[in-house]
Amino acid sequence: MAEDFAPEALAVFEAIKAARGVPEVNNFWKSLAVDPVLLRRTWESLSAVMAPGALDPLVKEMLYLAASMTSGCAYCIASHTAAARARGMTPAQYGELLAVVGMAAETNRLAEALRVPIDPQFQ
């Protein structure tokens, strides 16, 4: 299988495996390997964004999961649900996340459909 990927892509795969402590990269990274420059840039950007910072790692995963749900990316939903669970997301937190994402989708659509003007104090 390694012969299917450019050496540049294999080097990024090694960085991903080392950072995540996994024996194999997942399909997302393998798919990006069609363009090793895109693969490296995406890995570096993701690593920077998801690195420890002002937001707790679980919060970051849950935000990523919420954005993925909103975008409708089945792969990203599955991947980031697993990542959030690995970071400690409980079933109760997952349930509340689903409720918030669902409510936001509903109220966002209502506000857009009704063309609700933005209140001055929100601007």
Automatic annotation (TrEMBL):
Location of the Carboxymuconolactone decarboxylase-like domain: 39-116
SUPFAM superfamilies documented for this protein: AhpD-like
Protein name per UniProt: Carboxymuconolactone decarboxylase family protein
